[in-house]
Amino acid sequence: MNKLKLRLQLEQFFLEDIGERDTTSDVIFSDEEQGELVFIAKEDGIFCGEEVIRTGFSLLDDGVVIDLNVRDGERFEKGQRLVTITGQVITLLKGERVVLNLIQRMSGISTRTNEAVMMLDSTFTRIVDTRKTTPGLRMLEKYAVRCGGGYNHRFGLYDGVMIKDNHISFAGSITKAVEKVKASIGHMVKIEVEIESKEQLLEAINAGADVIMFDNRTPDEIKEWMKLVPDGIVTEASGGITLENLYQYKHTGVHVISLGFLTHTIQSIDISAKVHVK
To answer: What torsion do the CA atoms of 93, 99, 101, 106 make, to the nearest 10 degrees?
Structure first.
């Protein structure tokens, strides 16, 4: 995770929430009053967000003491104390909601990703995310996928070529689209082509695609079409894949299965925050 970027993001999140001041806490408490803030899990899950906790509270007060009982990627159980933060009561109250919102969502993503990885149960095929992330939270959500045992697809439009159906329609064909890309990009950039038919698959292979995505294809179709794919081309299955039917894709032979639901339809993990005044 890019800690410089995380720091900047958290600054903006705190400014949005605190504004000029915490009108409630600043009036009720003095700077001298100390306390503990304890995050407690209200359900089982996979934890993610330790750097958010450290960076977040240290931005508000570098004197806080953080005691983590669980680390990123580790499993926790309902009722478990996840972390204890000790410091000024004012600081704890100002930072509580922003930090808690983030780690609840990140832990929800890690937990869902781990469910998918365990459901697939493959040492060959990887579970990866997509660009279907919350605007502004992509770095954190993709980090959470890794903590759950998954892998990252491209981070944005800038770090890889993916020629999709609309690109093909505008360009005129897969061949024309790939030719234009190869004439412009450097040798370090991979080219992925999304295909929906056997004819498109053969055209993508002949055009020199590095990665081929089987878009909204059935497991049987993918398994049959994989016989046509030369060694050296990475294959990906995407579209219409859920936790319920994921296991059906295990033996298709694809290298990667990309799942949008890892980040875009997530239920945050329920974590409570309890304060103890010293």
So the answer is: -160
Looking at the fold, whether 127 and 180 belong to one and the same domain comes out as: yes
In this structure, the answer to whether residues 271 and 171 fall within a common structural domain is no
Give the catalytic positions in this structure: 97, 132, 164, 194, 215
Tokens for 79?
A: 């009722």
* Residues of the domain holding 108: 3-116+266-277
Residue 127 shares a structural domain with residue 80? no
How many domains, in total, are found in the chain? 2
Residue 141 and residue 34 share a domain: no
251 and 139 inside one domain: yes
Residue 109 shares a structural domain with residue 139: no
Torsion of CA 206, 127, 119, 222, to 10 degrees: -10
**Two tokens at 274?**
């309890």
Query: Residue 258: which residues within 8 A CB-CB, separation 6 or more?
Result: 128, 129, 130, 153, 213, 236, 237, 238
The secondary structure of 61-78 as a DSSP string is -TT-EEEESS-TT-EE-T
Listed as ranges, residues in the chain with pLDDT below 50 are: none
pLDDT at 276: 77
- Asked if 5 and 86 count as a contact pair (C-beta separation under 8 A), the reply is no
pTM of the entire predicted model: 0.94
Answer for the pair 95, 62: CB distance below 8 angstroms, yes or no: no
Helix residue ranges, H only, 125-173:
138-147, 165-171
